[in-house]
Amino acid sequence: MVFDLNSALFRRDFTCSPKAGGAGRLNTIRMYILLVRASVRSRMQYKFNFWLSTLLAAIVNLMDFALISIILWKFGSLKGWSIYEIGYLYGTIMLSKAIYRSFANDVHHLEKYLVSGDLDQLLIRPIPLLLALMAQNFRVMFGEYIQGGIILVLCMKTMLSTGQIDGWAIPQTIAVILIGSVILFAIGLGTATFGFWITRVSDLQNVTEDAARTAVQYPMELYPGWLRGILLTLIPVGIANYVPALYVLRDEFGWWLLPATTLFAAVFLWLMLQFWKLGMTRYQSTGS
Q: So where does this one cross the membrane (predicted)?
């Protein structure tokens, strides 16, 4: 049997009937929630593994930040950025990543579905493929949430006490984290979509997601101009935390920077969703 995503069958699966209207969309959302709940319950069947992986994730990330902290305590700042400002960059991007990977973990692991042929099983579910994929292996990344939250709160508390930022920085930071999660999701979705053509995308994801996200945990002044250009345009992960931090922490550019970042995130996500739809039309698989 050959799946043809251009067929009437799959068009019916991926879009709501005009007659169904809001009821069809509501049923889709309900189905997605049920799948997420089932995924969480399956993970909690192995509580020891869940809490052990959470602890290990927190330790690994803590050691990562501890290394740069030791260097900063020794020299005081890094390219004009204090340890608290770098902690802000680190905490916001970690929380954005945690949100993205909680809700769309298997978008990052699309390769395994393409290689094994398990994507066919998701295609027959009565919800859009992307939502079905996002409902798989739903993760609550407590380790990243706790560690990122602690680092961010401690750094912001110090900057509040010194007068570098004021109370408005708190809601602004929440917005930065949410905007960042959308941008990271869009980058992950765009990278995963290449899998419909090349199948193996793990090496590409190491560059566009893992390496790029690690780079913006620190000030972009550390990097040469060509690399900063890539992190702000081709792989725009720098817009997830560095760019809005310039306004929140340093009052650079102006109040319009956060709305502009929000608009960019929305447009970028829309473009990646269109790219995903194009990628699905290239997918063919044989099954029984």
A: 50-75, 174-198, 226-249, 256-276
